[in-house]
Design brief:
This protein is an alpha/beta fold. The chain has eight helices and six strands. It has a six-stranded mixed sheet with strand order 3-2-1-4-6-5, sandwiched between helices. The longest helix has 16 residues. The radius of gyration is 17 Å and the shape is globular. The two termini are 31 Å apart. The relative contact order is 0.18. The N terminus is likely disordered.
Length: 241
């Protein structure tokens, strides 16, 4: 289908998320990204990527639509070196033109995590100062953002819409309807490089202290915050706006 979204000129004129969700619920990921681009324009649209184990597929689809869409990457200070190297590899491979690596505020780190052990004592607070607050800062110039959540990931992600309201912004989930098999097909068809840690048993990769390998039969995200009730970093469970 050809997903058509209205062109708007300001955040106050954004169409309702529910209206866009109805129009795009059966659209392909590329059609959803193209609709987001038409809705707010390139200067007001950002894609947020962790450059994790499945990130290459969404970045590939975006690059095919417009490789100059800004990409926000949250460099928390606790990332695997392999993730940083993978980011650089994908930027070169896909020809991404505007990747912005955003770091936590030094003032927040000095105040709240001077000993770099907050991840252990209060992982929610650690995610807040290293991911949630930096993302809120990075998104200020934008009217809409794109992310790579998928319903098949389960838990809080099982019922995500294609487009949702994020307060002052629209939030597009172009991979909401995509299956694991379709993810694998994109990897194969485009000959995309894999995250280096996948071969070592890491099926979902976040920050080093809070990421572990998964065993056969486990959910892909079982290795995130293992042993805790926490399943999300916070950027998708609160309105960033």
């Amino acid at each position: 289908m050809n997903a058509i979204a209205p062109q708007v000129s300001s955040a106050s004129a954004l169409p309702p998320a529910e209206e866009l969700d109805r129009a795009l619920r059966d659209a392909s990921p590329a059609e959803i990204i193209a609709a987001a681009l038409r809705t707010v324009g390139r200067d007001k649209l950002a894609l947020v990527s962790s450059f994790g184990t499945e990130s290459a597929t969404l970045l590939k689809v975006m690059a095919d639509v417009d490789p100059a869409i800004p990409v926000i990457f949250l460099d928390t200070g606790w990332l695997f070196e392999e993730t940083l190297a993978y980011r650089d590899e994908l930027v070169a491979t896909l020809g991404l033109k505007d990747v912005r690596s955003i770091k936590p505020a030094e003032e927040a780190l000095s105040r709240d995590d001077p000993d770099r052990d907050l991840w252990f004592s209060d992982p929610d607070a650690c995610c807040r100062i290293r991911k949630v607050e930096p993302l809120a800062r990075a998104l200020k110039p934008f009217s809409a953002w794109i992310n790579g959540r998928k319903r098949f990931q389960g838990s809080a992600r099982a019922d995500i819409p294609v487009v949702e309201d994020d307060g002052a912004r629209l939030k597009f989930n172009p991979f909401a309807n995509v299956s694991h098999e379709e993810i694998e097909a994109i990897f194969t068809r485009a000959r995309l490089p894999r995250h280096p840690l996948v071969a070592s048993g890491f099926l979902s990769v976040g920050c080093m202290p809070c990421t572990s390998r998964t065993t056969e039969g486990e959910d892909a995200r079982a290795g995130r915050w293992r042993g805790r009730t926490k399943t999300e970093c916070g950027i998708h469970t609160m309105k960033i706006s």
